[in-house]
């Protein structure tokens, strides 16, 4: 069986490719965002697309937890507890929308855990690309405490789940300019056999 059908190729025009290439190449992380955020409905539409990542056996070993408003305070307290700080962390309050990225391991003799984590990471990265392309500021925050007991409890994780981190989402500040990005030198990362 060859690659895609003729109708599939017709739907993927060079203009579509260039648009996607430009969106990916211009993506950046915004460590400072405004209080604007996409609605739940806008987010759901992007999650439906992001969920189309490569997924061996179509296990869908992931879920996302949407946190807004006071839900972020629960995370602030959990970070403090994991870090043995007295005062809640202010990190979760740096964006109006946090999206926890969770790998939900499925029993499979064909798909190992690392591959299931890769799928969850792929969903998160694709979602971050979509949010960026839609004009939202996004950055992915992780930390040693993602695997701590207070985080498990705060996110109500099941035994087969692990927290990978959070996408922090908000508006792009008007006066903030995109910082310089080092270009990727593809030949440094491509090996030809």
Structure description:
With 193 residues, the chain is α+β, with helices and mostly antiparallel strands. It is 38% helix and 17% strand. It is built from 7 helices and 4 strands. It has helices at residues 6-11, 14-25, 40-50, 71-83, 113-133, 149-154, 186-189, and strands at 62-68, 97-104, 136-141, 161-171. Strands 1-2-4-3 form a 4-stranded antiparallel β-sheet, covered by helices on one side. The protein is globular.
Summarize the structure.
Helix content is 38%, strand content 17%. With 193 residues, the chain is an alpha+beta fold.
Structural class by sheet pairing and helices: alpha+beta
Report the order of strands and helices. Answer: HHHEHEHEHEH
Distance between the termini: 25 Å
Q: Which stretches are poorly predicted, pLDDT < 50 over at least 5 residues?
A: none
Helical fraction equals 25-40%
Rg from Cα: 19 Å
State the major sheet.
4 strands, antiparallel
Query: How would the global form be characterised?
Result: globular
Number of strands: 4
Strand order of the largest sheet: 1-2-4-3
Beta-strand residue fraction: 15-25%
- Averaged pLDDT: 91
Count of alpha/pi helices: 7
């Amino acid at each position: 069986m060859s690659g895609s059908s003729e109708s599939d190729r017709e739907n993927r025009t060079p203009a579509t490719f260039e648009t996607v290439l430009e969106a990916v190449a211009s993506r950046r992380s915004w460590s400072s965002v405004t209080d604007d955020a996409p609605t739940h409905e806008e987010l759901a539409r992007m999650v439906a697309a992001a969920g189309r990542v490569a997924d061996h056996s179509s296990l869908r070993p992931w879920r996302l937890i949407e946190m807004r408003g006071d839900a972020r305070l629960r995370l602030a307290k959990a970070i403090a507890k994991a870090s043995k700080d007295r005062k809640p962390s202010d990190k979760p309050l740096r964006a109006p929308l946090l999206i926890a990225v969770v790998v939900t391991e499925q029993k499979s003799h064909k798909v190992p855990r690392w591959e299931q984590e890769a799928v969850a990471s792929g969903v998160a990265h694709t979602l971050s690309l979509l949010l960026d392309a839609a004009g939202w500021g996004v950055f992915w925050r992780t930390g040693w405490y993602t695997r701590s007991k207070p985080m498990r409890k705060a996110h109500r994780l099941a035994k087969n789940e692990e927290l990978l981190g959070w996408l922090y989402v908000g508006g792009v500040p008007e006066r903030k300019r995109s910082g310089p990005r080092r270009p990727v030198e593809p030949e440094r990362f491509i090996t030809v056999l």
